[in-house]
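[audit] Reproducing an earlier prediction to check determinism. Same input, same settings, fresh worker. If the C-alpha cells differ from the archived copy the diff job will pick it up downstream; this log only records the rerun itself.
[audit] input (125 residues):
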Amino acid sequence: MFRFLKGLIFFAIFLFLFGFISMSLWNALIPDLFHGPVLTYWQALGLLFLSKIFFGGFHGGHKRHCHGRNRHWGKYWNAGNWQGWEEKFMKMTPEEREAWKRNIKNEWCYPGPEKNSESSQSAAS
C-alpha cells in the first residue's frame, strides 16, 4: 500500500513538473517567435497528451518493441552483409524466408509471444 502511494505521489510530482516546464517553455518562446497564444497549465498538459497520442501512441507496455535495431544496423551494414540480400532472399524457399524473418525479429526486437501461436503450433504438428 505504501509503495502504491509513493508511486502515486511521484507520478503527480512528475506530471506537475513536466506540465509546468512545458507551459513555461511554450510561453517563453511561441508568443514572441510566432505570435502564438499563451497557454495555461491545463492547456499545456492537454497539448502534451495530444502529442503523445499523435506521435507516440499507446502501445500498452514494451512487449514487442524493436529498441535495439539501431545498435545492430551498423554491425551488418559495415560488415557488408547487406550486399546482395535481395537476391538471396528471392532464392529462399518460403520456409527459409520465415526462419530468416523470425531470426531478424529475435535479434532486433525483444522476444514476445507470437500473434498466431495456435496456428503455428497446429502447422508444426
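[audit] rerun output stored. Observation attached for the diff report: The CA atoms of residues 93 and 99 lie 10 Å apart.
[audit] end
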